Amino acid sequence: MTLCIKGGFFIPQLYGNIHGLKANQLKRLEHIYRRRIPHNLLITPELGRYLTELSQEIGRQIGIIVNRKGSIIAAIVGDEKEIVIPVLADYPLGRKRLRGLRCIHTHLKNEPLSQDDLTDLALLRLDMMAAIGSILEDGLPANIFISHLLPLNPEGKTFEIHPPVQFHRMDLKSDEFILALEEEMGRAVVRDIKDKRERAILISASRSRGDKDEQLESIEELKELSRSANVAVLDTIIQRPKELNPKYLMGSGKLKELIIKALQKEATLLIFDQELTPTQIREIGEITELKVIDRTQLILDIFASRAHSRDGKVQVELAQLKYRFSRLTGKGTALSRLAGGIGGRGPGETKLEVDRRRVQDKISHLEKQLKSLSRGRLERRRRRGASGVPIISIVGYTNVGKTTLLNTLTKSETRAEDLLFATLDTASRRLRFPRERDTVITDTVGFIRHLPKDLLKAFKATLEEMQDADLLIHLADISSPNFEKQIEVVENILKEIGLDSIERVLVFNKTDKTSPEITKNLCRRYNAIAISAIHPATLGSLLKILEERLWPEDMDEAVTSLFKVRH
Which of 17, 181, 333, 494 has the fewest CB atoms within 10 Å, measured from its CB? Predict the structure, then answer.
């Protein structure tokens, strides 16, 4: 970072505002790199005096970045008010609590650390930030001002500012101090070191005139999606700016708060509730040095981990490629970072170097596969149609109990979990009614608000099976405070995929979690049937309605017979 090669010689690299400096001044600045600081000292008295005298001479602040071995890795020239720290690409933060670098710079007056100094300390996760004030008359060091970060604490303090001391009386053992600070930081973060899950902070940034309640509901749903993806949620940040930042989505102040919080809590992942552009993902990732994904990518990742059938795997891979295709930039290396973990599962868990043409070829190939699989499904549907067996499909929001209802009705053992998108692959079972009548009942993938368009398109082939359904059971979780909006989401998706013309029965599930009075009133208002899928005794009314809807002629016969008997 600090040296560049020219003509076979190593030349020290100076950063910042060097325009207008004399040749001898530049040479003296370059000589800074020859200095070495003992590992137990913050800075030597000789180097401190060298910096302040030169700083007064050129009328600009001078800064150095020092590693823990005492090597100076960057010499920086600023203006009279500040320095600008260069990109520290050779010293990534990773999962470290501190970067292993300290910044020491001059102030032309004997003033304390500025707010910009403290912000750089926090955002860059430096070991220390120090400023050496100088005496105007002769440029000698005056006071030294030191600050360092703090472990996570109840007061929410980010850093500690030490009282100023005279430079030549400073006796800080920097190596011992930093090691003790890191140990304290480790103790302050209470977590199981054996827990290898991603540690995420969830973010929602939506314009202030939007629906606040909907924003809160959506972030709660994002929590559940994260839980389904086996992600540990550390915290949530909600912002409602008047205008969204085109570069970072959220405001710069909130972004700084996010970075500090993420570092304090040792987060490894940022998940945004809003869909991010490729530029936003890149910019946020660079400034935070964390993995950044959005709601769409999280859902795609869940689908990638849960799909088991050939159909499901092809559909998910197709959706992922279409999503990432639009995010290929430059020479098409955007997919080269695909690896395991949240936001990284996908088509081929090895690193890929693909360009747009190759991705498009892969998409075309997968689409052909889907067509072939669709023909197989069509043939199976024809055979079922020829048998005259009615078809019932269970639809609904994710995690409302569709699989549990299928299992209870058919006495089957399809895997059911209390997770969003626990079921991705369609499952069909036989349901027997009295009088030796059979139906085929099918469990389908759950719907969700803001379902990725590419994913919906990919699953449309599977959902085509619902077109042959004679009846849809629209299952809703009556215990959810958002059940009305969930019903609306499902109805809108059914309309979008052209299934809104099929007869539907609205069924309220999980009535065991609500009072009988509330259940009765809601059923009357929505003309719905109340059940608890885990209690077979509650399903009698549902079975009766299904039988009436599927075989209405029997009801007509029954009414006719009753009329004849009475007369």
Answer: 333
